[in-house]
Amino acid sequence: MGTAESIFFWSYVAAGPFAWVVFAYLISVGRERMTKLRNAKAGLPESPPRVTILVPAKDEGSHIRTCIDRVMQQDYPSFDVIAINDRSIDDTGRVLDEMAVGWGSSSPSPMSRNGGDEPHPVMRVVHIDHLPEGWLGKCHALYKGTEHAAGEWFFFVDSDVKLQPDALSKLVAYAVDRKADALSITTTVETEFFIERLMLPLLAASWATMFAADQTNEDSQPDRAVANGQVFLIRAEAYRKVNGHEAVKDRIVEDVELMRTLKKAAFKTRFLAGRHLASTRMHTHLRQMFHGWARIFAGTARGSVWPMVLTIAFLIVCVLSVYVAGAWWLAGGAWWWGVAAGAHLVLMTVQLGLIWFWTGNSPLYALLAPISVPIEIAILGFSIRKAVSGRIEWRGSQLSLRETA
With 68 labelled, which of 57, 289, 316, 317 sits at a CA distance of 20 to 30 A? Predict the structure, then answer.
C-alpha cells in the first residue's frame, strides 16, 4: 500500500466503519434517555390534577371527529376539552359544534368515572374568525384556547393525532412522578405509501440527531431542547409564567421554541419516545415533505444553515462513501478495501434498519439507502435555501423565518 493510498484508506476507515461504531454508541445513549416512558411504573396520584385538553383545528372537517372521539375516550379521571376552530372555511366548525352538544353539560362528568356525579361541561368550542397581525395561526388559536382553560395542566393535541385511551394517564403519571413541568413525545408515524415509509423515519431520525433531542432531558443543558407540538403536556403555572404561546407567537416551530423558553426559565422539560401512546399521519408526498421538513429543519435551526450543512456532509462522507469504496474494490482494488467496505455496509445497514424498525416499519428499507439518502440530501439542500431566504411556504402561506435571540 503506497503512501497516498494509505492516507485515503485510513481516512475512509475513520469516516466509514469507525464513524458508525461511534454513531451506534451515541444512538444507544440517546435512546436510553428517551425510552423511559414505556417502562415507567408510576401511577396517578390519589387526587389527579385537572387537565384541559386543547385541540386546534383549521379546515380539518374530514377527520376532526376521529381525533375528538379519541380524545374523549381517555381513561383519565378528570379532564375537559376545548376545541378551537381556527378560521376554517370547511365544515370544521359545524362538526365541532355538533360534537360539543353531545359532550356538553348534560353529559356525565369525567369525574363520575371515579364515583363523582357532579355534571360538568366536558367539551366546548372556541371559534376564531380573524388572525391578529404578528401572530401565526396555531399559536394564536392555542393562546385563545388557554384563555378559557381551567385545568392545572394543559394538554395540547393536534387535530390529526390519534391518542390511545391511556395516553393522558400515562403522561400525567410520569410528569407528576418525575416532577416535570413540560412533557412532549414522539408518535407513531402512520404510513400508507412507499415514499412515506422510505423517507419519514429517516427524516425524523435525522432531525432528532441534528438537534440532540435527548438533551431536552438533561437539566444541565439549558440551551438544548426540542418538542413535538402534536402531543405536548405543560403545567399551567409554568405555561403562564413564560407567557405561553404569546411568547412564541411568530415562530414557525412554536413547539420547539416554547420548550426552549420553558427550559431556559428553569422549568423541568422532558421529550420521550411515545409511539405506543399516539399516532399521526404526516406528509404523504414529496412536495409536502420538501416544504414540511424545510419548515422543521430551518425553524429548529433558527435560520442557521450549519445543522443542515453538517448533516449533508455526514451523509456524503459517512454513508454514500461505502458505495464508492465498494466500487473501487470491485474494480480491482486491494482486498482491504473490500473488507472495510463490507464492515461499513453491515454497520451502517444495521443502524439504519433500527431506525425503520423503531418507527414500526420494515428494517429492509435500510437497503434502499442509495435512494433515500440522495432524496434527504435534496430536502436538506432545499431547507438551506429556505433558511437563507428567510421565507417558508407552508399550507398555502408564506411564513417569515427570523432568528430567535
Answer: 289
pLDDT one-digit tens code per residue, 370-400: 999 999 999 999 999 999 998 887 666 677 7
Q: Are residues 199 and 236 in the same domain?
A: no
Query: What's the domain count of the chain?
Result: 2
Q: Which residues touch 115 (CB under 8 Å, ≥6 apart)?
A: none
Residue 118 above 60 pLDDT? Answer: no
> For residues 337 and 186, what is the distance between their CA atoms, to the nearest angstrom?
39
- Alpha-helical segments (H) within 253-368: 254-264, 286-300, 306-314, 321-330, 335-358
Amino acid at 75: D
Counts of helices then strands in the chain (DSSP H, E): 14, 12
The answer to whether the pTM exceeds 0.85 is: yes
Closest C-alpha among 252, 234, 261, 246 to residue 293? 252
Task: Tell me which H or E stretch contains 397.
Answer: strand 397-400
Burial of 383 by CB count in 10 Å (0-12 exposed, 13-18 middle, 19+ buried)? buried
Q: How many CB atoms lie within 10 A of CB 96?
A: 27
- Between helices 335-358 and 321-330, what is the axis angle to 10°? 150
Residue 3 domain boundaries: 1-34+192-211+285-405
Provide the β-strand partners of residue 231: 157
Rounded CA Rg of the chain: 23
Residue type, 237: E
The vertex-18 CA angle with 207 and 28, nearest 5°, equals 45
